[in-house]
Design a protein that fits this description.
The complex is a heterodimer. Chain A is mainly α. Chain A contains 19 helices and no strands. By secondary structure, chain B is an alpha/beta fold. Chain B contains 17 helices and 5 strands. Chain B folds into 2 domains: 30 residues; 251 residues, SGNH hydrolase (Rossmann fold), CATH 3.40.50. Classes of the chains: A mainly alpha, B alpha/beta. Chains A and B meet through helix 4, helix 5, helix 10, helix 18 and helix 19 of A and helix 1, helix 8, helix 10, helix 11 and helix 12 of B.
Chain lengths: 461, 340
């Protein structure tokens, strides 16, 4: 059940009405928990079972850690092994799924390919990181374990965040789950622009660009120019798709009285890799910083070790995205960029005094991001090697035309995002220009919506 | 904080003004009729060809039947004069219209009608009916073919869409609007290369031709999302799908016109091995076979044929030119096993 489906609309409206009719917090939480599991089980009940068991496991383990501080280390290790193990197994299952299937068939343990159809739970990457952060924080003593199983279960399974994040922290969400909630008009006032922009970015921008991008990446040997045009379009598609999902997720959470974190802040205007990761998939980058990069020593170690920490963190970031060498290269590429920029003294807070220098840095960073997202989108490294060595840079005259068409689609549909970005920077939120923008966006949704909307890109991770 | 009331009034004003313009300009009626309308007239090209060539066997299908099968080989080895009616990207809705408005209405009717299909396509009336496929359907349909609008469009629409198509003229106007917006793609080729609309369309068609696609194992997970419709729990529930599909009508039309219908499940690279097929599909196909055979049709399955391997495919459906003969042979062998 995707946020853009009619089934979801019906499900959500019934749930929202029931939720606010119930005045007691405990019942509201129970209802949200039940709804979250229904939402998750919609695709396959097996998903909900996995979510339920893994939630119970971490719930009791966190309680055990708090009760037996002398055994914190071993209990934490068990939790990490299990969470990371399950995540790694499912993430890399695709690599050896066919072999496993053949083996099971040979051993008469599975008569057909059913195994391949069910063993890929959506959202696992996201809720696993949530749980790991929770158990680590409890083991560090910075967070009290949650004794209310419903509240903890809801923290893990909260449906607006379940499939594609944001990767919320227990410190943010659990206190809100534990506080009384009565309907306030502010919830709607905060939610409607998020929902409107989320659907606009997904339905009008991302899905339209998608059709122009996807057809390039299934070609056998597209020209490098065509690949670059498609990658540029893909950057805007991915931003619209993922930030659109986050907006919808935050808007839905708002309507239930929850304030959840943002994930994007104009990432393509960054001037350095550190600035980019401060603005792109923020909840993942802060998670990696707090639970991987800092424990490794962060920057408070020798320079060599610091650079290793950066490379390793981004390597894991790449692996988290999927089982493919292109993701590994993507992660290492960001790691290498971070190291080089740090060595040049261009970190998170870098801002040159001259405006022109800053603009040049932004353009250079954007071009470097283009290369990064090329690795992110390609089907495989072999495919890229074949395309790069297959012919000339521009390819045939018809290929140049195809590149211009692809580029045009990406740029034209990115314009509304750029306009909104500039409006956010320059205008007060009370400006009538925002109302006109939102009205046009709503009209756009009406004109572009169809029942066959594609899945959100990040749902595959 | 943004002002909701002001936004909503502007939105409402925009909807009303643009709707009024669309209705008064005669672009859309109000209230609208949900779903598209077929224009009068039926393309009789194939019907005329059937009359002229008098084939004993007609092959009906999509680009799999067009690209993977060699008609000369089929005619030669079966000893039956053969005619191909294939439409790229088509599915059961178009095949139904081809049978109803071209084949059974022709002055010469073939002895055998062979439909080449994939997996659950025969009971998915809403599959592949949008965009340019609507134009193809329209050519073979007349306004009297309301059953196609009903099954292929209205039943796949949710109540909100139906309401919007009826009472929001702007929603009914959306295809026109989107086409107008998408005209922008012609600007850059014209500015940089003096390549106009026709030149751009030709270039796009040639570059993004499926024959230029990478082999499926090179671009895993790149299948059209619409494909999922065929493998969803609902799509594989034969009993609930069959009555709303065109299958009973195709069976009936063939029976009433004394045409032996042969349904051939094609081989594709959708699943690397039969073991990877969903269990639901296997159950679906068992029921499908019983159903069509009970009605006198013949069912053949060449999906697991060993003559063609995964490496022979250009993309998920089409084989390399050098594998065409082997694919056709596999098809002929299956056909000869049931022909008298």
């Amino acid at each position: 059940m995707a946020f853009t489906e009619y089934d979801f609309l019906v499900f959500f409206l019934i749930l929202l009405a029931a939720y606010w009719l119930i005045k007691r917090r405990a019942w509201q939480n129970a209802l949200l928990l039940l709804a979250s599991y229904i939402f998750y089980a919609w695709v396959h009940p097996w998903y909900a079972l996995l979510l339920g068991f893994s939630t119970l496991f971490d719930y009791f383990l966190a309680l055990a850690i708090a009760a037996r501080r002398d055994r914190t280390k071993s209990l934490l290790t068990i939790s990490l092994l299990l969470n990371v193990g399950v995540l790694a197994f499912f993430k890399y299952f695709d690599f050896f799924a066919a072999d496993i299937s053949r083996l099971l068939i040979r051993l008469h343990l599975a008569p057909d390919g059913t195994l391949l159809q069910i063993l890929l739970p959506l959202g696992l990457s996201f809720f696993t990181l949530k749980k790991i952060a929770y158990v680590v924080d409890v083991s560090r003593g910075t967070l009290e374990p949650e004794r209310d199983l419903t509240a903890f279960g809801l923290f893990v399974a909260f449906f607006p965040q379940l499939l594609v994040g944001p990767i919320d922290r227990a410190q943010n969400l659990i206190p809100q789950i534990q506080s009384d909630r009565v309907w306030k008009p502010e919830y709607f006032k905060r939610a409607w622009p998020l929902l409107l922009m989320g659907f606009f970015k997904k339905i009008v921008i991302a899905d339209t660009i998608r059709s122009a991008v996807d057809r390039v990446f299934v070609l056998g040997e597209p020209s490098p120019l065509l690949i670059l045009a498609a990658t540029l379009a893909f950057m805007f598609q991915l931003l619209a798709d993922f930030s659109g999902y986050t907006d919808i997720s935050r808007g839905l959470a708002c309507l239930f009285g929850f304030d959840t974190p943002e994930n994007f802040r104009a990432p393509f205007t960054a001037a350095t890799p550190a600035q980019f990761w401060d603005r792109w998939h923020i909840t993942l980058s802060t998670w990696l910083r707090d639970y991987l990069y800092f424990p490794l020593g962060g920057s408070r170690v020798s320079t060599a070790r610091h650079y290793f920490n950066l490379l390793f963190t981004f390597f894991i970031c790449g692996l988290w995205h999927g089982a493919g060498w292109n993701y590994v290269v993507w992660g290492l590429y960001f790691g290498a960029l971070s190291v080089i920029y740090r060595a040049l003294g261009m970190g998170r807070d870098w801002k040159p005094s001259r405006r022109i220098t800053y603009w040049v840095a932004r353009v250079v960073m954007f071009l470097l991001l283009l290369v990064a997202f090329l690795f992110f989108r390609i089907p495989s490294l072999d495919w890229l090697a074949g395309a790069l060595t297959g012919g000339t840079f521009t390819g045939s005259a018809q290929s140049v035309v195809a590149a211009l068409v692809t580029l045009s689609t990406g740029l034209v549909y990115a314009i509304p995002m750029l306009v909104k970005h500039e409006m956010d920077r320059r205008l007060p939120s009370t400006s009538i220009l925002f109302d006109i923008y939102f009205a046009l966006a709503a009209l756009g949704i009406l004109l572009y919506v169809n029942s066959g909307a594609a899945d959100f890109i990040y749902a595959q991770f | 904080m943004y002002n909701f009331q002001r936004f909503f009034l502007l939105f409402l004003g925009g909807v009303l003004a643009s709707s009024a313009l669309a209705v008064m300009g005669g672009r859309v009626p109000f209230p609208g009729t949900p779903g598209p309308d077929f224009t009068p007239g039926i393309e009789t090209l194939h019907q005329n060809a059937l009359a002229a060539q008098q084939p004993e066997l007609v092959l009906l299908g999509d680009s799999i039947a067009e690209e993977n099968l060699d008609m000369d080989m089929i005619a030669e080895q079966t000893g039956l004069s053969s005619y191909r009616m294939t439409f790229g990207g088509s599915a059961s809705a178009l095949w139904y219209l081809a049978v109803k408005n071209n084949i059974v209405t022709a002055s010469h009717r073939p002895r055998y009608l062979v439909i080449v299909f994939r997996d659950s396509e025969m009971t998915a009336p809403g599959y592949r009916v949008q965009g340019k496929l609507f134009t193809a359907l329209d050519e073979l349909a007349s306004p009297e073919d309301r059953v196609v609008i009903e099954r292929s469009y209205l039943r796949t629409m949710n109540p909100l869409e139906t309401f919007a198509e009826t009472y929001f003229p702007l929603y009914g106007f959306r295809n026109f609007f989107r086409s107008a917006v998408d005209e922008h793609v012609y600007a850059l080729p014209y500015i940089f290369l003096q390549c106009g609309k026709r030149c751009t369309d030709r270039a796009v068609l040639n570059v993004f031709n499926f024959k230029n696609n990478a082999a499926p194992d090179k671009v895993k997970g790149s299948l059209d999302p619409e494909e999922n419709l065929l493998y969803s729990m609902e799509g594989l529930d034969f009993e609930t799908q069959v009555d709303d599909s065109y299958l009973p009508d195709i069976l009936r039309l063939c029976r009433e016109n004394h045409i032996q219908l042969i349904l051939v499940r094609a081989k594709s690279a959708r699943f690397a091995t039969p073991a990877e097929e969903p269990r639901g599909l296997k159950e679906y196909l068992k029921k499908f076979e019983s159903y069509v055979e009970a009605d006198g049709a013949l069912y053949l399955d060449i999906s697991a044929g060993p003559r063609v391997s995964l490496e022979d495919f250009i993309d998920a459906y089409h084989v390399q030119p050098q594998a065409r003969a082997r694919y056709t042979q596999m098809f002929i062998d299956a056909l000869l096993s049931v022909l008298p």
